[in-house]
Design the sequence.
């Protein structure tokens, strides 16, 4: 860019626009300086990263740095975050998770981890941001149980160091039994509100302390009624509708719930795939190891129907932490497919482009011809963990410039129109 082009570029940014961005920037800093909760959140965010790295180094993991770009290969609409390189005229998706990168690295380097900025084309709210930091970990030659044991140790040490609390993480539940009993795979188990069925009629068992509140909610509804401490639903109502209603009740009662018991539990045996609106997708990702593959060496995806795929379980897991009305997934992971042929058939069967997985498949072929490492790992959403530790369920308290603020500087600093004009000038 020569001097004249630079001056023209400067003139595109009006003084009004620049003034607006500066005001947004300093208004956020002012909020930070005057809000002790934000200061606490940012401090805890720094401390947990130190704790997590300490545990992982003790477990023999190497810290790696990876290029934060990838081809778009996942369900998170990463194409909303594009980095354009004017020198080779190519566009790259910013990474939504370094899953494939760290899996391929584990084959050569062994167990590894990284702190990675993730970019996802998702809706933002109090517990979700489309730009966030994740602690991604990949192990070589550990079983699912051994991987979960390391994840448990990390979470326990975070609670001990930050809150001086010994958190209880002992129970394990299958995905299926949680959904059937609570209508969700991450319920707050201490609240009750279980779903039951007698003959053809579903009902929810309401704890005595919430009967009055629930009575007020359902008083004018024609599809359900209270019978003692049972919330009865009309015969013929679909179970999915019951599950939605159950979770609506929980959300409306949130402010009246006083259950200070802090505990965690594991969710295991996740479904491998799901079909939404006629589109088949993996529940976690296409690299998850199907449970049956550990027992059947001849297992393949090639001849499975959509319904058979959706009935497959995989060695995936989530760690849920509960307190009051909140239940938060703080860690999720799985055992990976480490066999080349099996991974190839999974990619083909789920309709992905094999070329986008070329370097993973190449790494797996190398793995077969050498040590044949068993692969698996997990990821921790740093901001979500911090939210729970400081007892605040709003993402803006744990990010300095969060993208979920309606007037945040990182949300409105540059318009799409400005970017298009800028690209024309520069490229």
Sequence:
């Amino acid at each position: 860019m020569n001097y004249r082009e630079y001056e023209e570029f400067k003139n595109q940014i009006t003084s009004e626009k620049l003034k607006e961005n500066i005001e947004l920037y300093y208004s956020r800093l002012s909020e930070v300086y005057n809000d002790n909760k934000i200061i606490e959140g940012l401090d805890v965010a720094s401390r947990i990263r130190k704790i997590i790295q300490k545990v992982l180094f003790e477990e023999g993991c190497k810290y790696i740095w990876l290029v934060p770009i990838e081809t778009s290969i996942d369900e998170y609409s990463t194409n909303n975050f594009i980095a354009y390189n004017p020198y080779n005229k190519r566009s790259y998706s910013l990474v939504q998770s370094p899953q494939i990168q760290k899996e391929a690295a584990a084959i050569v380097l062994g167990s590894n981890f990284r702190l990675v900025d993730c970019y996802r084309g998702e809706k933002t709210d109090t517990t979700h941001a489309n730009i966030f930091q994740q602690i991604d970990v990949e192990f070589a030659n550990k079983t699912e149980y051994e991987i979960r044991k390391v994840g448990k140790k990390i979470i326990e040490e975070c609670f001990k160091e930050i809150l001086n609390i010994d958190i209880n993480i002992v129970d394990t539940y299958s995905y299926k039994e949680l959904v059937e009993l609570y209508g969700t795979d991450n319920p707050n188990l201490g609240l009750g509100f279980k779903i039951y069925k007698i003959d053809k009629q579903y009902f929810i068992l309401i704890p005595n302390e919430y009967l009055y509140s629930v009575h007020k909610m359902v008083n004018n509804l024609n599809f359900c009624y209270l019978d003692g401490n049972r919330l009865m639903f009309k015969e013929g109502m679909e179970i999915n509708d019951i599950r939605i209603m159950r979770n609506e009740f929980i959300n409306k009662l949130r402010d009246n719930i006083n259950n200070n018991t802090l505990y965690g539990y594991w969710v295991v045996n996740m479904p491998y795939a799901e079909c939404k609106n006629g589109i088949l997708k993996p529940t976690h990702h296409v690299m998850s190891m199907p449970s049956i593959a550990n027992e059947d060496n001849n297992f393949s995806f090639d001849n499975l129907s959509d319904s058979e795929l959706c009935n497959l379980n995989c060695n995936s897991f989530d760690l849920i932490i509960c307190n009051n009305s909140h239940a938060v997934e703080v860690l999720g992971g799985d055992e990976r497919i480490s066999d080349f042929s099996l991974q190839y058939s999974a990619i083909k069967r789920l309709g992905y482009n094999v070329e986008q997985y070329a370097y993973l498949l190449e790494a797996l072929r190398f793995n077969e011809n050498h040590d044949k490492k068993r692969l698996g790992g997990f990821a921790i959403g740093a901001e979500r963990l911090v939210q729970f530790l400081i007892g605040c369920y709003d993402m803006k308290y744990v990010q300095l410039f969060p993208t979920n603020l309606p007037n945040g500087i990182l949300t409105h600093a540059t318009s799409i129109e400005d970017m298009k004009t800028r690209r024309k000038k520069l490229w």
